Each structure stands twice: as structure tokens, then as C-alpha cells.
Amino acid sequence: MNDLARAVWERRSQQATRIVDAHAHAGPYSVFFIPEPDPGPMIRVMDRCGVSHAVFSSHLAIQLDAAAGNAATAAIVAEAPDRFTGYITVNPWQDPLAELGKWGDDPRFGGIKLHPDLHEYPLNGSRYAPVWELAELTGCPVLTHTFAGSPYNDMPMLDEVAERHPGATILAGHSGVTPLGIDQAIEVAERRPGVILEVCGSHNSGADIARMVRRVGADRVVYGSDFPFIDLRMSLGRVLFADLTDNERAAVLGGTISGLLEWR
């Protein structure tokens, strides 16, 4: 049994590996109640689970108001820069250039977040052009929501964008979500070196994560939780108990995303 799994069984916070959650959120969500969605309670849960750092976007930003949500993200990072890094949320209907211009050079932000499903705008649409331009110019990673069969962010759209922008690093949030989507996401990542598979969601398993690593390598797979939208322990447990080597597990849990954030 690896040291991380042993810590789970012994009900203690692990200290063996620096864990970085590549897909988190903060703040209330308007559609349903999320208990304790603010930074203080989140840090307590992270501490209990041995998670050192989280890269997050504001629920407000991804759903209703990108400008106000990005400002909230910046404020949270300013209060706890050792625990959080922000994503600049770009809503294609809410002046992407203004948000990228305001926050693009701010060290509190380490990436860009897109949610085509919530914003009802296709991932391959022209309004995202400033995002891909910045990503290719700087190395700033872009985390996008993906969902198999979606009219806004399915796997063929991800494939098209990655082909069109080979210099961009694109984190495929949820890796397509469904069993079919996971298969398709792996195939896209095999074709497109800039695509990184992110593992949070309600449908995948440790076996799926191990298969991702076997097919594309641990340097192309990152742990994310969707916390506090989804309990981070579920996504974390799938990685802790997956059939991976210690080095592969360490890369997925934090090494790969930490390297991607070094563009700053």
C-alpha cells in the first residue's frame, strides 16, 4: 500500500506528496445550495485531506458575472496566496478582452477558465480568439469544461481547437465526463500534445485514470475535484487508490499542474 492510501486508512492528513487541485471553485452557486463554499472552510477540508493548494475560479464568475467573479477570485488569492491560485474566467458574452487585459498580468492568476456549457457559446467560436492568442503567446494554461455530446464543448470541438492552436495548453475539464467522453478525450489527447486530461467528475473511476496515464503519460493527466461543487475526497480517492506507480501518482496529484503553472 502506498503512503497516501495508508494515510486514508489511518484517518490522518498525508504528508508524502504535495497535492495541487487543478479544478476548484469558491463562493455560492445560484442553482442549488453548497454548504460552506468560502475559502476558510475550504482550507480546513484541504488540510484534513492533505491538499496543499487549489487553482480555482469563482462560481459567480463562471455563472453570472465574470468581472465581479474575477475580482472576488483575486481577493481570495490575496488573502491566502500560499493556498490558492486563480483562474481568469472568460465569458464570451461579457467583454473577454477587458477581463484578460485587467487580470492577464496579475500574478494571482495562473490560468484561464472557460465554461462553454454555462455560457452557451461553442468552444470553437471566434469570441474565444483572445484566449487562444494569449495562451499561445505566454504558455498560460486554459481549463475548459468538456462534456461528451454537448453542443458547446464536446470532444470534436476540443480536437478542432487543439489542432487550430497547437501552442496552447488546454486542460480538458472532466475529460468528457461520460464513459464515451473519457474514451474520446483520451483519443484527442493522443493526437494533440497540448491537451491535458483533468479527472474530476461523477462518472470516472481509478481504472479510467490509470488508463489515461498508460495512454498519454502522467505528465498529461492532472487531479482536479470541482470542490466545493463536488466533495474533493471522491476525486482524490480515485487517484490515491488507482493502479499507478508512486512517481505517476505524484505527477497526477500535483507535479504536472505545478509545472504548467511555472509559465508565470
CATH superfamily: Metal-dependent hydrolases
Task: Write down how many β-strands occur, each being a DSSP E stretch of 2 or more residues.
Answer: 8
Gross morphology is: globular
Helix content: 40-55%
Q: Determine Rg (CA atoms, Å).
A: 17 Å
Largest sheet at a glance? Answer: 8 strands, parallel
Compressed to H and E, one letter per element, the order equals HEHEHHEHEHHEHEHEHEHH
Q: What's the tally of helices?
A: 12
Strands side by side in the biggest sheet? 1-2-3-4-5-6-7-8
Reading off the top of the CATH hierarchy, the class is best stated as Alpha Beta
Terminal-residue CA separation: 36 Å
Q: What number of structural domains do the residues give? A: 1
- Residue runs with pLDDT of under 50 for 5 or more positions: none
At CATH level 2, the architecture is Alpha-Beta Barrel
CATH topology: TIM Barrel
Structure classification: alpha/beta
